[in-house]
Write a structure and sequence with these properties.
With 261 residues, the chain is α/β, with parallel strands linked by helices. The protein has a domain of 85 residues: Beta Barrel (Elongation Factor Tu (Ef-tu), domain 3), CATH 2.40.30.10. It has six helices and 15 strands. Strand 13 and strand 14 form a beta hairpin. It is globular and about 50 Å long.
């Protein structure tokens, strides 16, 4: 376990499972308290890559979340039941194109391994990170050798520019001529990022957050309203058909309304 500002990074020894993980996928973790049956889905931060030993997966937990704090407090050597890797990962470009990778707070955790993969494919990766304050930014020191540029914004202006990621994304897309936007953030921010990307003519992929009670699609407890390739609206499972979705396919207003309701 290691601190990451307001968050905690936890390393799990999972053997050969680490080699099967793809950026955007998640683990479904059992609560250490056996009286609580619901599982917790946590995006994979990095798997058997930079800074992570072979056979291991690193996840980022938010101690302010009651369920995640219990997992974060596990002692070294403790065992936790995990299912994974689960979910649909980010799709990587077939050609080396400029990409913007943008994340907010701990939702950005899933994007670090993605930035590594994109750079390996020869893509020019431009990182845009945001948070409520400097304490809620994930450190970028190990990515600065991988990405072409790093832009940091905070809501309170304590680090970087005082702004939100969607405030500066449009200008960044123009400056970098990026063809693809990848994002991990709260739903309302993903909606704004998807709109900016679409206006700029960029293709976008979003890691949509949500509770995945079973993580496998059996319970259908994580509905996401989308528009299919045929133009017909439908509801899919966030854990099985997601958590990564095309930004122009999610019915954002409906998703936000469901979250509020």
């Amino acid at each position: 376990m290691r601190p990451l500002g307001a968050f905690v990074a936890l390393t799990l020894g999972v053997g050969e499972v680490a080699e099967r993980c793809r950026p955007g996928q998640f683990l479904s973790l059992a609560d250490p308290d056996p009286t609580r049956l619901l599982r917790r889905s946590v995006p994979v931060h990095r798997a058997a890559g930079i800074g992570v030993r072979p056979g291991s997966i690193e996840i980022v937990l938010d101690p302010s979340d009651a369920a995640e704090s219990v997992i974060a407090e596990l002692a070294v050597g403790a065992r936790v039941h995990a299912l994974g890797p689960l979910g649909r990962p980010f799709a990587l470009p077939k050609e080396a194109v400029p990409c913007v990778v943008t994340g907010v707070g701990h939702h950005a955790a899933a994007l670090f391994g993605l930035a590594d993969r994109l750079a390996e494919r020869g893509c020019a990766v431009h990182l845009l990170l945001g948070a409520s304050s400097g304490a809620h930014l994930l450190p970028t020191h190990d990515l600065r050798r991988t990405v072409r540029s790093v832009t940091v914004v905070t809501h309170d202006g304590s680090v970087g520019q005082r702004a939100r990621v969607d405030d500066v994304l449009g200008e960044l897309l123009v400056r970098t001529t990026a063809a693809v936007v990848y994002a991990g953030a709260p739903v309302a921010t993903l909606h704004a990022v998807a709109a900016v990307a679409e206006a700029a003519g960029a293709w976008s992929q979003m890691a949509v957050p949500g509770d995945h009670p079973c993580g496998t699609g059996l319970c259908s407890g994580c509905p996401v309203p989308v528009v299919g390739e045929d133009g017909v609206g439908r509801t899919v499972r966030g854990c099985a058909e997601g958590p990564v979705f095309r930004g122009d396919r999610v019915r954002w207003d409906d998703l936000i309304a469901e979250a509020v309701g």
